[in-house]
Amino acid sequence: MSLPSNVPQAASGRQVARPVPLRETVYDAILEMIITGELAPGRHLVEKELAEMLGVSRQPVREALQWLKKDEWVDLRPGYGAFVHSPTPEEADQLLGVRTLLEAESARLAALHSTKEGVAALKQTYKRGVAALKADDIDTVVSANAELHTQITAMSGNKILGELAGQVARRVRWYHTPVAKSRGKKSWDEHAALIDAIAKGDADLAARLMREHTEHTRESYLERAED
Amino acid sequence: MSLPSNVPQAASGRQVARPVPLRETVYDAILEMIITGELAPGRHLVEKELAEMLGVSRQPVREALQWLKKDEWVDLRPGYGAFVHSPTPEEADQLLGVRTLLEAESARLAALHSTKEGVAALKQTYKRGVAALKADDIDTVVSANAELHTQITAMSGNKILGELAGQVARRVRWYHTPVAKSRGKKSWDEHAALIDAIAKGDADLAARLMREHTEHTRESYLERAED
DNA sequence: CGCCCGCATACTGTATGCTAAATCCGACGA
DNA sequence: TCGTCGGATTTAGCATACAGTATGCGGGCG
């Protein structure tokens, strides 16, 4: 056949690998540096510096900084510059409160909308987390934990809720990481019970378990924060 | 004293009346145009056009558009341009769900942290709303309604919560306005009961009332949306 | 007559130059 | 010694210029 030209149709979802706008790459890069601690809280970020560091012009850096400001990762002082946001204990506490609220509701909805496949995916992530826990592979534990929560919020079917919960959770994780690496096995036992409740479609139980789960995290935060 | 030149000192909280960055003005201007409907959903926003319209260069416009994208007021198509976001019924529904969640929690916390002055302020706003209702002054009714909710979320003492609730509420109002101007007297009766619960410090009651109140709004939305 | 290719156009993406303002530091005076 | 003033420097804010790419249209071929 001629296969004249027509629609490549890139079978799978995405077209042909569009070049991601530079500002997004820059945004990710800076955020990464903030989360890993390479850029410490309070640090003065200079556009020109970042631009040179990343090998781009100031323009994309500016736009990335605007995004970061919107997400509260940096504070922008007009006329001066950007500073990595310094979380206050009060703010961390409020954030934890909001997270509890959002995640509990997510769990409730997830229980109502749970599917076989969804639950299977949850269990798989759970296994990954537990295995990493046994192997003392902290990084994987943390990432599995994050993914599990993401999956649950996604399963809620409410995109707005999922988006908010995701943002809040990411900030919480950043605040939380330095004080408490993880609560270990107990946390994963709670996960197991939670998944069970979702699988059974018991919305109230799921919400309650998630609420308790995130509250435990909050308590562990408050304990450690007393240093 | 000499008052040689120095600081005008703009008495109240903020420093000295800093000249607001242009991008913020532009942001407000565009948002205003979106909310009032001057820029209809789906409309293609051209940077150059907006820049000329507002008498500034493309740069501040770009930054304002990035902010608007973050707040989901516009959709940004890489390589093409910005479009005023078109709300889907599904999205509106999810947004209403999240709003209920956030506002109910705000009311609960507000009840726990209520002060004499705060309650007095609420009552004042309430009076303003009721008076405007009688006078058929729709604009004032709407603004009083918005202010009342804002005051309650502020009273919760949780800034994060307040910020999220504010954003969500503004979008809800935009979606909602075209279909249902207001629910009238009944809505304000509910407000009265809610303020009462907050004044008494009855957190559970306040949360329940707020939940019912916002759910009523949701129902009225769904009814009208069937056109 | 319909489809497809190729070109012209318009817009965004990115880079850079210029201006105004905020900060910092040193010197002067009380 | 401390407070204050003034200048130098740094930095963001804003404007403009250039390049890459998506889009839409018109002409030509089947």
From TrEMBL, chains A, B:
CDD domains per UniProt: WHTH_GntR (cd07377)
Position of the signal peptide? none
State the Gene3D superfamilies in the record: GntR ligand-binding domain-like, Winged helix-like DNA-binding domain superfamily/Winged helix DNA-binding domain
The record ties this protein, via InterPro entries, to: GntR_C, TF_FadR/GntR_C, Tscrpt_reg_HTH_GntR, WH-like_DNA-bd_sf, WH_DNA-bd_sf
Top-rank taxon: Bacteria
Against SMART domains, the record matches this protein to: FCD, HTH_GNTR
Per UniProt, which keywords does this protein have? DNA-binding, Transcription, Transcription regulation
Give residue ranges for domain HTH gntR-type: 20-87
PROSITE patterns per UniProt: HTH_GNTR
From the Swiss-Prot or TrEMBL record, give the protein name.
Answer: GntR family transcriptional regulator
